[in-house]
Write the structure tokens for this entry.
Amino acid sequence: MFDPKTNRFPYPLETDKHYLEIHKDRGYVFDTKYPYIDRSKGFLFRQGVVRFLLNAFVFWIAAARLGLKIEGRENIRKNKEILKNGVVSVANHVHMWDYIAVMTAIRPFRSNLLAWAPNINGENGTLIRMVGGIPIPEGNTAATKTYLKVIRNLLQNDHGWLHIYAEGSMWEYYRPIRPFKRGAAHIACDSDKPILPLAFSYREPGWIRKHIFRQIATFTLHVGEPLFPNKELNAKEREKDLLIRSHEAVCRLAGIDPEENPYPPVFADSKRVDYYTSTYGVGYKGSH
């Protein structure tokens, strides 16, 4: 598999930290009263319009922009009866548009997405909400309980699809799979739903993409098989086991032997591994 090994982006020292620049704060407060999943008629109407535009135009434009190929869609069709009862999907987070690729791959299913709260408050917040974004409240225990109750209802009662970037943040064109935070495995085990692993790998771009459009790499999205919580384990070990298996599955789908991936599967204040350079952010001019 192609490794871009780019130093264009300022990857932080901590593997779950963000470098995305947010230029706006819309002032939303993510507390117990916030509609984490908005079911109002006005919102649903606007969301329907956005989904029409996604299917008519955006999916095709994004596929061309990313040079996207999708492999393993047969796993969506083969496991349709399982997935329609509720599922948590995970993937490495490697591009501003990679969730559009996920939405493209899992059609006809529609997903919700756990999102970094400042993104929802930022300049792209409305669009993120329209494609199913759910902000993760921070520093408010009561709000966290409310949000988790909404998530549990989505999976158990609505039999919905929830996508989670378990690495915790976006690092563009980064090849190694960073450690997973426990949220995805916790939610899957708590709701007794499987995790569907997805993974982005890279292909070397052709001359036109590389020299005219300055594209670092093109993308392949791989779809894996559902992974189920092991009910023979106690709750704590069940969660850890599912986390490790999902991390290993994402590694393999991305063409990486889990034993050779430079990061362990479980996040524990994990620090960046400088596996090819120690200089990052050369020429970085903000998010794009």
Q: What stands out?
A: Residues 41-253 form a domain with the Glycerol-3-phosphate (1)-acyltransferase fold (CATH 3.40.1130.10). The first helix runs from residue 41 to 66.
